[in-house]
């Protein structure tokens, strides 16, 4: 056994694992290196640790989508009803409006508009439209006949007309 090295697997080749313990001001570091691959496992561990830290410590992020994924550029319409729920949160402010369909049955519409920050820049606030308000909404209808509409203009029961872009309605 003295003249030959022990047989190793055909794929991995000779793998030599070395541990070096370095002590410095009570800080003990363990360095591991797979010499035959030229990979320092400490760097791999550090990279994986930083990746895990980034993934698990990041704040919640919601996926975002294009306008055309949900709404039609070509189909617009108007609905009128009573606001039953307000979600003034990112990524889009949403209102749920109960309306009566052609048969007189109440149906719920998902009404969406810009982000809270974008609306705030135009003077819109979470109190601009409240639960219980009777409103009429003109906007882009949802794709595939879904009960959704993207607000271009809102007319309140008082007659006030508001737009999420901040533009003044025509006289």
What would you note in describing this structure?
- The model is unreliable at 8-35 (pLDDT under 50).
- 15% of the residues lie in helices and 40% in strands.
- The chain has 2 domains: 17-55, no CATH class; 71-162, Nucleic acid-binding proteins (OB fold (Dihydrolipoamide Acetyltransferase, E2P), Beta Barrel), CATH 2.40.50.140.
- It is of the alpha+beta class and 171 residues long.
- It contains 3 helices and 9 strands.
- The strands form 2 sheets. It has a 5-stranded mixed barrel with strand order 4-5-6-8-7.
Task: Summarize the SSE layout with pairings.
Blueprint: E1 17-24, E2 27-34, E3 39-40, H1 41-57, H2 67-70, E4 71-87, E5 94-100, E6 106-112, H3 116-120, E7 134-142, E8 148-156, E9 161-162
Provide the CATH top-level class of the largest domain: Mainly Beta
CATH superfamily of the largest domain: Nucleic acid-binding proteins
Strand composition percent: 35-45%
Helix content bin? 10-25%
Sum up the structure in keywords.
single chain, 171 residues, alpha+beta, OB fold (Dihydrolipoamide Acetyltransferase, E2P), 15% helix
Question: What is this entry, summarized?
Answer:
With 171 residues, this protein is α+β, with helices and mostly antiparallel strands. It folds into 2 domains: 39 residues, no CATH class; 92 residues, Nucleic acid-binding proteins (OB fold (Dihydrolipoamide Acetyltransferase, E2P), Beta Barrel), CATH 2.40.50.140.
């Amino acid at each position: 056994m003295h003249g030959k090295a022990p047989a190793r697997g055909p794929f991995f080749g000779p793998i030599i694992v070395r541990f070096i313990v370095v002590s410095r001001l009570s800080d003990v570091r363990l360095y591991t290196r797979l010499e035959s691959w030229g990979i320092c496992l400490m760097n791999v561990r550090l990279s994986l640790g930083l990746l895990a830290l980034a993934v698990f410590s990041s704040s919640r992020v919601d996926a975002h989508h294009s306008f055309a994924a949900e709404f039609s550029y070509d189909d617009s319409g108007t609905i009128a009803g009573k606001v039953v729920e307000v979600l003034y949160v990112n990524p889009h402010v949403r209102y749920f409006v109960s309306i009566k369909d052609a048969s007189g049955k109440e149906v719920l519409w998902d009404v969406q508009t810009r982000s809270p920050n974008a609306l705030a820049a135009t003077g819109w606030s979470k109190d601009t439209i409240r639960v219980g308000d009777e409103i009429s909404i003109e906007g882009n209808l949802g794709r595939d006949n879904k009960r959704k509409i993207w607000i271009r203009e809102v007319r309140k029961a008082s007659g006030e007309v508001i737009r999420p872009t901040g533009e003044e309605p025509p006289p």
